[in-house]
Amino acid sequence: MFEKFTEKAKRVLFFARYEASQYGSPAVEAEHLLLGLLREDKYLPHRFLPRSTLSLDSVHKEVERRTPSREKFATSIDLPFSHEAIRVLNYSAAEAAQLSHGHIGTEHLLLGLLREEHGLAGEILRSKGLNLSAVRQGLAVPILQERVSTLVDIPFGAESLRVLDFAKEEAVRLAQPQVGPEHILLGLLREEHSPVAEMLRQKGLELSTVRQGLTEPLGMPKGSADAESSETSKSPAASPPDVESWDVGQISVLALTEDDQKFLRQLKIRPVAP
User: Which pTM was predicted?
Assistant: First the structure.
């Protein structure tokens, strides 16, 4: 897994280990990952919440207030990740996969911290106004813009524009608040001389019968059946892997390769807490 970490994300783990040693913690906890994240990328929260008051100093104060005071120890001492920190890393990997990102960066670590709902780090982030859905949306927008940008230079032909106009008229005729795929089908059938319309008619689809089939179950004024049909036709959104069900007591939860283990040894971090 760690081969997918960006250099900035790897430095977060290094700083997290340092923070854990400064608090005398027996393991690297999620709050240490948050402190490491802010050491490496202090402006990251402001990407999603421009007026955020989250800072390294404010988190230090909150962690000091909420955790037991222990004696500092040398950074050379070997430290494990806590089970909570392991879940954060797994969540980060799952969020990167959900966004179809080929890397795990500081932004994915932020998502991982927010997904660990019952931990101190997530609580601090939410108290400062950050929430999981907003950060996810903020990261997804550039992906959508990139996908749309590949289409903007492809114009609609005159026939396609007529189909879209027909589809709008059919949506109005059926008292629907938006144009759905069923209206586009009707628009295709209304463009009588197109090869697509001819093919649909050969398959037994006629404009009048499709209209009737849509009108009868709809109860036209309400359009409730259409909305239900539209909803059921949508493919369910892919969800991140169910990390909760993974056995955090096993090293395999991190899918550790030899390179992963070597990287952790360099940081003097053991993969699993004893």
Answer: 0.54
* 98 vs 239: CA distance, rounded Å: 7
* Interval 148-201: pLDDT, tens: 444 455 677 888 889 999 999 988 888 887 888 889 999 999 998 888 888 988
Determine the 3-state secondary structure of 104 from DSSP. Answer: strand
Q: Is residue 35 within 8 Å of 25, Cβ to Cβ? A: no
Residue at 141 is within a domain: yes
- Neighbour-count burial of 203, counting CB atoms closer than 10 A to its CB (0-12 exposed, 13-18 middle, 19+ buried): exposed
Residue 272 banded pLDDT, cuts 50, 70, 90: low
Short-list 97, 136, 99, CA closest to 114 = 136
Full DSSP string of 194-236:
SHHHHHHHHTT--HHHHHHHHHHHHTTTT-HHHHHHHHHHSPP
Element of type H or E holding 270: strand 269-270
Question: Is residue 87, in this structure, part of any structural domain at all?
Answer: yes
The yes-or-no verdict on residue 249 having pLDDT over 50 is: no
Question: Domain for residue 153, yes or no?
Answer: no
Domain that holds residue 29: 2-148+239-270
